[in-house]
Amino acid sequence: MLSENYRPTTFIERGVAIPFTTPALQYSRARPSDRDEFEILIGGFTGDRTIYVLPFKALAESFNLTVHDRALAEDIVANGVRTPHAMRLSAYRVALTGLAGAAARTAARQGLDAEKDMELLTQYLLTSRVLELSGLTAQQVSQLIAAGKDDARIRREIKAAAVKLGIDPEKLNPYIDETARFSYPIGLPTAPVPGSVRRMFNRLKKFDEHLEHFIETSKSERANIAQFARDTLALTLGLTEETVVLVDKRLGTIDKATFVASNLRALKLDCERVNWLLDGWEDILALYYGEHPDSRQPPNSHVMRILDPLFLKLPMVPTKEIAGDHDVVKESPIKTRRAVRASEDWRTGDMDLETLLRIEQMKARVLKATLPPKDAQRG
User: Fold this and answer.
1) Final residue of a domain: which of 184, 206, 232?
2) Would 319 be classed as within a structural domain?
3) DSSP structure string for 111-145
4) CA angle 261, 264, 268 (to 5 degrees)
5) Helices marked H in the chain
6) What is the pLDDT of residues 72-91, one digit of tens each?
7) Residue-level pLDDT at 51
């Protein structure tokens, strides 16, 4: 058990948010451990920020899991899910089975399509910049890329660009594909469709305005919880913006240094850091707005009802990130065991179905909210 005053030192220690539907696990996070493949951090039992830690393999015997959550836990272990991006893809895969409902399945299918489209768009833009180094115009580049990577001329132009960059021609395409694979959630600033990170950043800025409005109008002592959330959000947004600026700078100009191994690693770490910073905030938005559109401030009466769970679910920024130390350290596990199965009625052993349904509906809204605007998808 970890103290309510606990603040993680690294993102790995904080763990990645898990989109479980079992009510008792709605505040849970997963992280790697030394003695078990994974362990799970669970909050919310005592109404404060106290966190319980137990081996991931003990989930089934400690909790009455939904079928969806059993499938998700199996997918997490089978695919070695350790990052927010990998967790999102895991959630999509399991949601496609329909175990979280039809709405979540539809949103997952659209989400996976949007992920693939954004990765292809990023590949296209990076390839365009590389080809322009060989002296081609933007129109010529578009015609070449439309012909496909196996076209003889595009292979010739890629080779010419590689020579200018001082890179082995056989390695340039793999470099571009790898860079697109880890950077597409942010996306290039020149992309016609913003990446999911940029869209989330803008949604969180609007959320900050709504928090400010609630604090000013509620005239309640409980507004201090909203202020704490706003302070946490301000720190998150500041660090996110700072890191995205670095990523844009690295990808803004394609030159010989872009694909140097050490620079690629630094770029990848920056992209991963942004995903970690924003991990868990999608659930905060779903909780805060509920059935209300996140373009408008929900009624203060609704906000008052969700302040306590919002406080419990806030993604705290790790102390090392605040201090500017971005090294990721693998932490040792903290052993614990619970004999009582949670999320059951102690008299009947039945699950709280009303709470379960509400959580499933919230998860479906979370999946839908990650999609780009419909106009951008049609484009």
Assistant:
1) 184
2) no
3) HHHHHHHHHHHHHHHHHHHHHHTTT--HHHHHHHH
4) 140
5) 11-14, 59-62, 67-78, 84-95, 102-132, 138-147, 152-165, 169-183, 196-218, 223-252, 261-278, 281-289, 300-313, 319-322, 353-369, 374-378
6) 999 998 998 989 999 999 99
7) 84
* Whole-number Cα distances in Å, 102 to 88, 156, 191, 363, 365: 18, 48, 32, 12, 12
Instruction: Over range 290-300, report the average pLDDT.
Output: 88
Instruction: Say which residue the tokens 């130390």 belong to.
Output: 325
Question: Would you say residue 147 lies in a domain?
Answer: yes
Q: Is pLDDT above 90 for 303? A: yes
Q: Are residues 249 and 168 in the same domain?
A: no
| Same domain assignment for residues 82 and 127 | no
Residues 80 and 163 in one domain: no
**Prediction pTM value:** 0.81
Structure tokens given for 327: 């090294």
Kindly report the backbone phi and psi dihedral angles of residue 53, in degrees, each rounded to the nearest multiple of 5, phi listed first: -120, 130
Structural domain containing residue 268: 195-278+281-314
Residues 252 and 347 in one domain: no
Hey, is 260 helix, strand or coil?
A: coil
What would the mean pLDDT of 100-104 be, rounded to a whole number?
A: 90
Band (340; pLDDT cuts 50, 70, 90): very low
| Residue range 36-50, pLDDT digits in tens | 578 999 886 666 667
Residue 190 in domain: no
Asked if residue 360 lies in contact with residue 100, where contact means CB atoms within 8 angstroms, the answer is yes
Condensed to tens digits (0 to 9), the pLDDT of residues 234-251 reads 999 999 999 999 999 988
Q: What are the φ and ψ backbone dihedral angles of 223, each rounded to 5 degrees?
A: -65, -15
Residue 322 in domain: no
* Gap between the Cα atoms of 175 and 202, Å rounded: 30
Q: How far apart are CA 293 and CA 290, in angstroms?
A: 8
- DSSP for 297-350, written as a single string: PPPHHHHHHHHHHHHHH--PPPHHHHTT-----PPPP------SPBTB-TTT--
User: Is the confidence at residue 339, as pLDDT, over 60?
Assistant: no
Alpha carbon of 46 to those of 88, 170, 224, 316: distances in Å? 28, 57, 20, 18
How many domains is the chain partitioned into structurally?
Answer: 3
